[in-house]
Design brief:
It is a single chain. Helix content is 46%, strand content 21%. The protein is α+β, with helices and mostly antiparallel strands and 762 residues long. The protein folds into 4 domains: 242 residues, 2-Layer Sandwich (Beta-Lactamase), CATH 3.30.450; 113 residues, PAS domain (Beta-Lactamase); 68 residues, Orthogonal Bundle (Helix Hairpins); 156 residues, Histidine kinase-like ATPase, C-terminal domain (Heat Shock Protein 90), CATH 3.30.565. Helix 2 packs antiparallel against helix 9 and helix 15 packs antiparallel against helix 16.
């Protein structure tokens, strides 16, 4: 089935059409079901919210009246039963609470002793037989009665009563307020008028006996609504919710909310209230029905539009493409008649849209296809040579292999590295023994077995891998073997065609010796600098802390010693920073010299003055020329060399300084030797000691605590003057450092100069 779909674009479009339409239909059904439930719930929640709002309004009115009744019953006039003052208070309260139709005060026997508005005929009326009166007289909170007809005002009311406690703490009567239900009914009518002009919305406030407290239908207060309003019992039981019931051949939505707050004030039975809202289901869910019809119409229009689009697309696009594909299969390099001009594409050739442009492009392609075939070989060769030129320009060595491991290409950098002359290799490797390349590489590797094992694991992983190894040396551009170890990173990767099939492997060899050395130098620098800075800082902090101690008295000599040590450690850090700056200038090529004419003795004198703990013999000819050099830099060179000899040769070192000037030989110039009688240098390190940050292994006798910059700076300053410096071991023990300065820095004055007398250091 899948193969048939792959061969017919018509079936593919039909499948795409089905994949487009079916999800829309399913999505429309799902949307309808989801939105129907959502909109129904929204409508139900709206009615429930209306019922809750009415319940809150009723609650607010009754609670306000209960709080007013409680306030009046606890007033001083009520506790003294001051009837005249209570009458004045009732008149004022009536203005704030127009819903209260009657204020009354009864004594403990239930006899009415005061009412407002005043009705003398009802004074003396007995309230002792009412449940709410007895409950209020015995309780401490306001009590709300069931609805009833007031004997005083002859209207339907709800009474709120609370006990009056006298000044002696004993009950003296009951405060009663009648809340008119006519006002509550009027508010319900206003609410319905705001919702709709029709009478299809019905609102009920029902007491615990199922009697209407207030309603919008004007039914008798004695009507038992428990029989006519389904679900009312659940609301009176404290549950809120919705239900749909059928009445008079029509479905109605009933929403109930209990007024639960009254329970905290009412200890007698039958006074829990509820609010009910009744509305026709077809009116409530009109939006749901309208949405259903709109969705069905939209889906039908979508299906019709998609079908028309599919048929038009098939006839206007798919069919011409099929004919064009059929014509493309007929194109041959050796045919004489053009396929694109045949009757097969006669209808489409006159079109000006993309189909017509596509046919025109096929026509041009047909014209060019013959010349393209002829130029294939030439271009292939040109591309092959271009690829080889690109590979030759890459700094890394590149090796390409077939999946079976046979080498098919190696660029110039790789063959030069392993020492194979370019004339031995042809570009296609047809006549070259590729095993020779691998043999040459394995002969150079320090550990060939480890290399082969790492390469095998990398090839098995199938992902790009890095293999690290070392070689004993390499061949330079002149084909000479350079016996120095090099660190090599080989990146092994797979080469796959467009279908993902493995067609070969590649290896890129990169010499990372300098990077590794730079990283090692960085680590050494951080370690040395942290040590060389921490030691003087620790000493400075220790001496400074001792000087700042207030509970210890230090004599002047000790204070001077501490300050001297602080200065010495500070000089040590300054010397380290100066060395680093000088080294950075040397490496950057930005060092500036300030030369002048000096006697060699003048340049040696500061260094000899510092090296006062060892024996120094100086032997200088009288006819030495003046030196045109930078005094500061040359003094640093001599000081570093003498300090190096003193440090490694020990306190009893014998240092010999001698110089001579060659004028006749080929190597003309000034030669200066500084020799010591120490243990000497390891033979293989006589050149490496001049590298920056390098120090002789601490396990040897010639170990140092410096940063390894002294000799590097010496070489830099000497070479900056055009000279050379090197070291070697003496035959009788010890090391000697040779300095050669070129003739251009030598100057012979016309007058004779005096002799500087040097003394041996103590």
């Amino acid at each position: 089935m899948l193969k048939i779909l792959e061969r017919r674009i018509t079936l593919q479009l039909l499948v795409f059409y089905a994949l487009f339409v079916l999800p829309l239909l399913l999505g429309g059904v799902e949307l309808y079901l989801f939105q129907r439930d959502t909109m129904q719930q929204s409508a139900q929640q709206a009615d429930l919210g209306l019922a809750q709002a009415i319940a809150l309004q009723v609650e607010s009115n009754v609670q306000a009246a209960a709080e007013e009744d409680s306030y009046l019953s606890q007033s001083a006039a009520a506790r003294r039963l001051d009837l005249s003052q209570l009458t004045s208070i009732f008149a004022t309260a009536k203005l704030s609470y127009p819903d209260v139709s009657l204020y009354a005060v009864c004594d403990t026997a239930g006899k009415m002793i005061l009412n407002y508005p005043l009705n003398r005929k009802t004074l003396g009326q007995d309230f002792s037989g009412y449940d709410y009166f007895q409950s209020a007289l015995k309780g401490d909170t306001p009590v709300v009665s069931s609805n009833r007809i007031s004997l005083v005002t002859n209207t339907y009311v709800v009474s709120i009563a609370e006990r009056i406690v006298g000044l002696d703490g004993k009950p003296v009567g009951v405060m009663i307020m009648n809340l008119s239900l006519q006002q509550l009914t009027s508010r319900l009518l206003v609410v319905r008028q705001q919702l709709t002009n029709s009478s299809e919305v019905r609102i009920w406030v029902v007491d615990g006996n199922g009697k209407p407290v207030a309603d919008t239908e004007g039914v008798s207060p004695d009507t038992d609504l428990l029989k006519t309003l389904p679900g009312l019992k659940n609301a009176l039981g404290g549950s809120s919710g919705n239900m749909i019931a059928r009445d008079q051949g029509r479905d109605w939505l009933y929403s109930y909310v209990p007024i639960n707050w009254l329970r905290s004030y009412i200890p007698i039975e039958g006074t829990n209230w509820a609010v009910a809202v009744q509305r026709p289901a077809d009116v409530t869910f009109a939006a749901v029905i309208s949405f259903q019809h709109s969705l069905v119409i939209a889906l039908v229009m979508l299906i019709v539009g998609a079908s028309v689009f599919w048929f038009v697309m098939h006839g206007w696009v798919v069919t011409p493409l099929l004919r064009l594909a059929q014509a493309a299969t007929l194109i041959r390099p050796d045919q004489e008649e053009k396929v694109t001009e045949s009757k097969l594409l006669a209808r489409e050739r006159g079109r000006n849209d993309e189909i017509g442009k596509l046919i025109s492009a096929f026509s041009r392609m047909e014209d060019e296809i013959h010349s393209l075939f002829r130029k294939t070989d030439e271009r292939s060769q040109a591309r092959l040579h271009t690829l080889d030129a690109i590979m030759r320009s890459i700094d890394e060595g590149v090796l390409l292999e077939r999946p079976d491991g046979q080498i098919i290409y190696a660029n110039h950098n790789y063959t030069q590295f392993v020492g194979i002359p370019p004339q031995e290799i042809l570009l296609d490797f047809d006549s070259f023994n590729d095993s020779h390349l691998m043999e040459k590489l394995l002969a150079m590797i320090v550990d060939p077995d480890a290399y082969l094992e790492a390469t095998r694991r990398a090839e098995e992983s199938g992902s790009p891998q890095i293999v690290e190894f070392q070689v004993r040396g390499y061949y330079n551009r002149a084909g000479q073997w350079i016996p120095v170890r090099r660190d090599i990173h080989m990146r092994l990767f797979e080469v796959r065609d467009l279908s993902g099939q493995l067609i070969g492997r590649g290896k890129m060899f990169n010499d990372v010796t300098r990077e590794n050395q730079a990283e090692q130098v960085k680590k050494n620098l951080l370690a040395i600098i942290s040590h060389e800075l921490r030691t003087p800082l620790t000493a400075i902090k220790g001496y400074a802390t001792s000087l700042l101690e207030t509970d210890i008295e230090l004599d002047e000599a000790l204070q001077k010693h501490f300050l001297s040590r602080i200065v010495e450690e500070d000089d040590r850090m300054a010397e380290l920073v100066t060395s680093l700056l000088e080294m950075s200038q040397l490496e950057a090529g930005t060092l500036k010299l300030f030369p002048a004419l000096y006697h060699l003795e003048t340049l040696l004198e500061p260094a000899l003055a510092v090296a006062d703990c060892c024996t120094i013999h100086v032997s200088l000819p009288d006819d030495l020329p003046l030196l045109y050099v930078d005094r500061k830099r040359m003094e640093m060179v001599f000081r570093n060399l003498l300090e190096n000899a003193r440090r490694y040769a020990g306190a009893s070192a014998l240092i010999e300084i001698s110089a001579c000037c060659e004028q006749e030989s080929a190597e003309r110039g000034l030669y200066l030797d500084i020799a010591d009688n120490g243990p000497g240098l390891p033979p293989h390190l006589t050149e490496r000691i001049f590298e920056r940050f390098y120090q002789v292994d601490s396990g040897r006798e010639r170990s140092s605590s410096g940063v390894g910059l002294g000799l590097a700076i010496c070489r830099g300053f000497i070479e900056a003057h055009g000279g050379r410096i090197w070291a070697e071991n003496r035959a009788d023990g010890g090391a000697v450092f040779h300095i050669w300065l070129p003739p251009r820095v030598l100057h012979r004055p016309g007058e004779a100069r005096g002799t500087l007398k040097l003394h041996e250091a103590l």
